[in-house]
Amino acid sequence: MTTKTPIARHVGLPETDPAAKAAMGWMHTARFLTTAAQLHQLPQLDLPEIAFVGRSNAGKSTCINTLAQQKQLAYASKKPGRTQHINLFSLGRQGGTDAVLADLPGYGYAAVPMQDKIRWQRVMGQYLVARENLVGVVLLCDPRLGLTELDELLLELIRPRVADEGLKFLILLTKSDKLTRLEATKALQIAKLNAGGGDAQLFSALKRKGVDEAALKLRTWVDEVSPAFAEKAAARQAEQGESEDGLSSAGEAA
Ligand SMILES: Nc1nc2c(ncn2[C@@H]2O[C@H](COP(=O)(O)OP(=O)(O)OP(=O)(O)O)[C@@H](O)[C@H]2O)c(=O)[nH]1
Ligand SMILES: [Mg+2]
To answer: Which protein residue has the closest C-alpha to ligand 1 atom 30?
Structure first.
């Protein structure tokens, strides 16, 4: 869905909301940052991070590519289970980075050996509970399947952070091009009921439905938390400066 300005809506012009346009421009700056198979391999970042989670084949990687307006930023495939690492992408203009997107491996793919499933569920659980700079979670859900048991488990896992830290949460109903209008309306109603503390919207990479809306939402999340992150980074820098001063004055005294 295109987010129109009130005037455009009034006269029926397909004009895009300037804020949504800016959000899409920002999304287009996405570039690969790093990949990690294990949590401890992820860099500690002083930047707001937004994770894309959901069952295998739900369309997480395609969603990131669609938001970024890039064909092959994240690896998408017909074959489920293609994303097997946590892949991070930086966002920000002029080479600066003001946020990070995380593409997570999907869960629930039957052909994955049980041991790998368990290992992965543990890694993802730890990521969602302990990743300090995580500010938002986008749960991708194929509305033809609805929320699965593992989706519900994930919701349980993040609920305390949603309640205590204001972790943002959005359910994206992917592949909505496969639904009739009535099915889409019903699926959205159900998802909104299940999104306790968060939001839900329809999305289609194929038909470019809900893309502006999702980009704008993520931009809003980042705008909301950026001052707190800037403050933290400044405090850390000051701390470092003080300890360096301490070192140099110790050096001078010697
Ligand atoms: N019709 C339709 N197909 C889509 C849409 N989004 C993704 N797909 C297809 O769904 C399949 C899986 O997409 P991916 O983006 O690789 O899914 P994923 O969630 O990243 O999968 P894993 O990495 O295995 O967890 C691909 O064949 C995509 O082309 C959509 O909006 N509409
Ligand atoms: Mg993927």
So the answer is: 175
Sequence letter at residue 172:
L
pTM value surpassing 0.85: yes
Distance 83 CA to ligand 1 centre (A): 11
Quote the tokens at residue 208.
């470019």
- Backbone phi and psi for residue 204, each to the nearest 5 degrees, phi listed first: -145, 120
What residue segments make up the domains of the chain, in order of their start?
Answer: 6-240
Domain 6-240 sits in which CATH superfamily? P-loop containing nucleotide triphosphate hydrolases (3.40.50.300)
In tens, the pLDDT along 129-177 reads 999 999 999 999 999 999 998 899 899 999 999 999 999 999 999 999 9
Residue 79 DSSP label: S
- Which strand (E) or helix (H) includes residue 48? none
Which of 163-167, 194-198, 248-252 has the weakest average pLDDT? 248-252
Q: Cα(250)–Cα(26) distance, rounded to whole angstroms?
A: 45
What residues pair up with 90 in beta bridges, in sequence order? Answer: 31, 100
Q: Which one of 56, 65, 77 would you pick to mutate in the ligand 1 pocket, going by the greatest count of ligand atoms within 8 A of its CB?
A: 77
- Nearest atom within ligand 1 for CA of residue 140: 19
Mean pLDDT of the chain: 87
User: In this structure, which ligand is nearest to the CA of 76?
Assistant: 1
Q: Name residues whose C-beta falls within 8 Å of residue 30's C-beta, 6 or more positions apart in sequence.
A: 64, 67, 68, 70, 73, 89, 90, 91, 101
